[in-house]
Amino acid sequence: MFNLVSLDGYFARSNGEIDWHVVDDEFNKFAIEQTKSFGAILFGRTTYQLFEDHWPKAFTDPATSEDDREIAKIINDIEKIVFSRTLQSVTWNNTKLFKEVIPQEIEKLKNQEGSDIVIFGSGTIVQALTNLRLIDEYRIMINPVILGEGKPLFKNIDKQLKLKLLETKTFQSGNVLLYYQPGKTV
Which residues have CB under 8 Å from 57's CB, separation 6+? Predict the structure, then answer.
């Protein structure tokens, strides 16, 4: 799981806006390298629709930066899995639609050969997979901003989950990336 969060734990404003994300050249270089390491992306409906609306256009838009064009190519080509009860179909290339989170299906995906699977955004999916203990690593990038309100990344978690800090990375922008591995539930 990779998410950008505010210092007070929100991954989006209440209206879903992410205009507060601190993104610069250093972040973009990191994003390219990280995205290259993924074999599939899991999405909830909202994040999927945001990505589907942005990345295919970004790839062909001459105004798109070289870094974003590279990210767009990777994301356009990668396998994408969307969890949605309301979408009837998906049209973005290499995308599959699941109507619900089925733990056995997630386990099958995780056990396939290949690169890592990542969740971007998609708070509801992060929460569901956290409750099912199906996330192997949490990568949380804390942005140097306090929103005061918004959509909390970890809401409705049914049991406390202890995490082990694996690594940290500090960016010149003030972003701090924390890599955690789940420990035991309490």
Answer: none
